[in-house]
Amino acid sequence: MKIGDLAAKTGVAPRLLRYYEEVGILHPFRSSNGYRSYGEPAIDRVLQIRELLEAGLTTEMIREVLPCLDAAKEEAQPPVCPAGKDLDGLRRQLSSIERRIDVLQRNRSAIETYLRACEDATAAAATAAG
Fold this sequence. Notes:
Distance between the termini: 59 Å
Number of strands: 2
Order of helices and strands: HHEEHHH
Helix content: 55-70%
Largest sheet: 2 strands, antiparallel
């Protein structure tokens, strides 16, 4: 598919897709005329990139972790981290993601409790009226 098709399927502007290619996190095929061509897996890759960006990772961090995410999908061994690599940024992002997950789980639980209470009250009122 062409870049416009990928943009339409992912909701990501072509300019941003070209940026992802420039920073090395999206890899299109090039046809003989130089046009970018993307396979169906590119849709999932772009959506994954968007999710990682929304989680607070930088494009540099994403470039580092994508091979590990690919290995996890294929149930293969992840690549070895280069010696001396500074991982503090990734550790901070992981901690931030874990805090957000905790908050989301608490909010989900509170909303579920509220909905159950409302449904129980509605059912009790219907029984009393019936």
